[in-house]
Design a protein that fits this description.
heterotrimer; A alpha/beta (about 250); B alpha/beta (about 350); C alpha/beta (about 180); A: Rossmann fold; 11 helices; 7 strands; about 40% helix; globular; C: Pyruvate-ferredoxin Oxidoreductase, domain 3
């Protein structure tokens, strides 16, 4: 009896992520959902620029590599061309919440029927640990060596809270992958975000709080603790918007 | 011969795109090309296509990238400052070997510049439409009929060579009306199944549309391969038109509206007994080098007539290996050379000695 | 035979429409035709002009810099373009809006109070077509018998009353 196996939607290649990085878990959750919904053959994924830039090698569905921040625009082009296919983007915090803010907000405002997996680890990982739009106050990075100073650079962007004011968005949830319970919740949210698209319900975004042990300068287990103690209080988990529930409740 | 209709260049172009099978248009408003977007907004919903006004030029070109990656004929249009914003996406299209048609209805620059006709994006479109080594096929219409014909051609060439093509127009071509026939040949279909990201149906390996190659050897290989394709295009796809060149001693080189004005000047100069003709590039890239170089052995001088500070003139000088003098006749900022401006340059060229 | 026609006035006078009328007739007559408007912010209520070329031979520049037919429907237009007309050109002036005379003596000038006529004859906004009617009478830019056919080509059939009013305006100008 097979108790545990690699999801079919996940390619059988070594991932390049650092030891202890939670991107691998999030990739796996997305792939499991694609398997469970039986949509691999009609899914088109859009990879970002950032640590998950090579995501196009890791998913077995058709993949497109986007320019930095532009994944929601690319996904819009794909979805409008292939309305019966399933289109998702997989983006980090710099990609989605800094350079791609306009694309994020406007794809939500249009209610594009796409799914966005937003990985927030409060830092630019790929380029070696610079301050992100989601870097916490006081957090030390390569470009905030004395800690993020809100008086100079302002406060972090809270994406779910921001988008919850965008009428066009359908479903927004923030989850984390720091423990088993949270991972299970994360999968539920990701599945719902894909399910919504299958049912034509519109724009769904799942923000996943993730770790970056390398650039945080922490061991993997300490990184999970740091996420729990610092990120979750600043970025509370939960559903920020769910039009589908509102409708069901009516 | 189909019945001719009177249409504005921008609208004729938009209809031609639809007839060429384009069903996906993404754009952002900017003068003087807005008629294209307005036309698409009206027509696309009726024919089951997509018209989407993006939040920016940057988003629009990336939507084009998505639609092209999905294997669809896609088009965007803009004007000079907007094309500058699109240059990121244009480079990605080229780097990912994706076909698309980009329309530039040029206006004066730099900066916000003005909204009147210009040809000051010649360098931008033929040399440096974005970062990295790549080319665009650049088509330069000089009539409303060519706005139609070259739109059709542009889609075909883009698909044939898997690369972006640009129609380099200007405010005059976009705004003017002329009789035009919308009868075009068959739309040739190209098989995109080997690369388009449109779902594997779990029947094949996944397709990846991508321009990232971390291994320098691999990236170098792709660049060389791409330039082999460009060499084929230079060998096979050059287009130009000759006007009264049979016995010409002076050769004007001009495209778009500058060529139209030059035609008037040539007729007038001929009345005065000056033997002048014109080679009008229709493809700015590939540039009609061979015919110009051949002409250099017959004429005593060239005149590059442009709505720029002198951009195409560099390609003329290169093409003729500087064998003969090349004069510049130009107006900029939205001004258009008059017949008299061009006649002045013709007289100047005529007064040059020559070893002919 | 080539006519280089420049129509000029301010936005809202129907300058572009009346230019289209001449262009459509050229199309029906299978002439070479070009129609080029000025464009941009000046169109929003400011000055507006339109170049039309009708020719038996291939048209070079679509820009009319030296018209042989000039229609001026406001003073700034006459001020701007009077000097550019070729010697012998025909200049048409809406005398209800322009209170000065054409200064040149090497051109033929026709004064017609088109805006006043339009108002008197209950043809609101059709001073442009009254001007065109007069141009047809004096400048041989199109055969008068084509007016109805061309108007029907230009204006959609569902706007039948507009066709009628426009034709009436052209007639009025033609017979003035």
């Amino acid at each position: 009896m097979i108790v545990f196996e690699k999801p079919k939607a996940l390619a059988d290649v070594p991932l390049h992520y650092c030891p202890g990085c939670t991107h691998g878990i999030i990739h796996r959750l997305v792939a499991e959902v694609i398997d469970e919904l039986g949509i691999e053959g009609k899914t088109v994924g859009v990879a970002p620029v950032g640590c998950s830039v090579f995501a196009y090698n890791y998913f077995n569905c058709d993949m497109i590599e986007a320019a930095h921040g532009r994944a929601p625009a690319v996904a819009t082009g794909v979805k409008r061309s292939l309305p019966d296919n399933i289109v998702f983007t997989y983006q980090g915090d710099g990609d989605l919440a800094a350079i791609g803010t306009a694309e994020t907000v406007h794809s939500a405002a249009r209610g594009e029927n796409i799914t966005i997996i937003f990985v927030n680890n409060a830092i630019y990982g790929m380029t070696g640990g610079q301050m992100a739009p989601t870097t916490l106050p006081g957090q030390v990075t390569q470009t905030s060596p004395y800690g993020r100073n809100p008086e100079q650079v302002g406060l972090p962007v809270k994406v779910c809270e921001l988008l919850s004011n965008v009428d066009g968005a359908t479903y927004l949830e923030r989850v984390a992958v720091n423990n088993v319970k949270n991972v299970k919740n994360a999968k539920k949210a990701i599945k719902k975000a894909f399910q919504n698209q299958l049912e034509g319900k519109g724009f769904s975004l799942v923000e996943v709080l993730s770790t970056c042990p390398t650039n945080w300068g922490l061991k993997p287990d300490k990184a999970l603790e740091w996420l729990e103690e610092n990120m979750i209080p600043y970025y509370p988990l939960g559903v920020y918007k769910d039009k589908t529930a509102e409708k069901e409740g009516e | 011969m189909a019945e001719k209709v009177l249409m504005k260049g921008n609208e004729a172009l938009a209809e031609a795109a639809i007839m060429a099978g384009c069903r996906h248009y993404f754009g952002y408003p900017i003068t003087p090309q807005t008629e294209i977007a307005a036309y698409m907004a009206k027509r696309m919903p009726v024919i089951g296509g997509t018209f989407l006004q993006a939040e920016s030029e940057v988003a629009a070109i990336n939507m084009i990238y998505g639609a092209a990656a999905a294997g669809k004929r896609a088009m965007t249009s803009s004007s000079s400052p907007g094309i500058a914003l699109k240059s990121e996406g244009i480079s990605y299209l080229a780097g990912s070997d994706l076909p698309a048609l980009i329309i530039n209805v040029q206006r004066g620059g730099p900066g916000l510049g003005g909204i009147q006709p210009s040809q000051s994006d010649y360098f931008q479109s033929t040399k440096s439409a974005g970062h990295g080594d790549f080319k665009l096929i650049v088509l330069a219409p000089a009539s409303v009929q060519e706005m139609v014909d070259l739109t059709f051609k542009g889609f075909d060439l883009a698909d044939k060579y898997r690369m972006p093509a640009m129609l380099l127009s200007d405010g005059t071509m976009g705004q003017m009306m002329e009789p035009v026939s919308l009868e075009m040949g068959e739309v040739k279909e190209y098989d995109k199944s080997s690369w388009a990201a449109c779902g594997t149906k779990c029947e094949r390996e996944h397709n990846v549309v991508n321009s990232l190659f971390i291994q320098p050897e691999e990236l170098e290989r792709y660049n060389f391969e791409r330039y082999e394709r460009y060499a084929q295009i230079e060998a096979n796809e050059v287009m130009y038109d000759e006007y009264r060149m049979e016995d010409a001693e002076i050769c004007i080189v001009a495209y778009g509206v500058a060529a139209r004005v030059s035609q008037n000047a040539i007729d007038k100069a001929r009345e005065a007994g000056i033997k002048v003709g014109m080679i009008r590039p229709i493809t700015l890239w590939p540039f009609p080098k061979a015919v110009l170089n051949a002409a250099a052995d017959k004429v005593k001088a060239f005149i590059s007539v442009e709505l720029s500070m002198g951009q195409m003139i560099e390609d003329v000088e290169l093409a003729i290996r500087c064998k003969k003098p090349v004069l510049l006749c130009n107006r900029v900022g939205g001004m258009i050379p008059t017949t008299e401006d061009v006649l002045g340059s013709i007289n100047k060229a005529n007064s040059l000695g020559g070893d002919k | 035979m080539t006519h280089e026609i420049l129509l000029a006035g301010f936005g809202g006078q129907g300058i572009l429409f009346s230019g289209k009328f001449l262009a459509y007739d050229g199309l029906l007559e299978e002439k070479e035709v070009s129609w080029l408007p000025s464009y941009g912010p000046e169109m929003r209520g400011g000055t507006c002009n339109c170049s039309i070329i009708l020719s038996d031979t291939k048209i070079g520049s679509p820009i009319v810099s030296n018209p042989n037919v000039l229609v001026a429907m406001n003073l700034p237009s006459l001020d701007k373009f009077e000097a550019s007309a070729v010697p012998g050109a025909k200049i048409f002036v809406d005398s209800s809006l322009i209170d000065r005379k054409v200064e040149r003596d090497d051109v033929e000038v026709y004064y017609i109070p088109a805006t006043k006529l339009a108002s008197d004859e209950n043809l609101p906004g059709l001073a442009n077509m009254i001007m065109i009617g007069h141009v047809i009478a004096k400048a041989d830019v199109m055969p008068y018998e084509n007016v109805e056919k061309t108007m029907k080509k230009l204006v959609p059939a569902k706007k039948a009353n507009l066709i009628e009013l426009n034709i009436k305006a052209v007639e009025l100008g033609y017979n003035y």
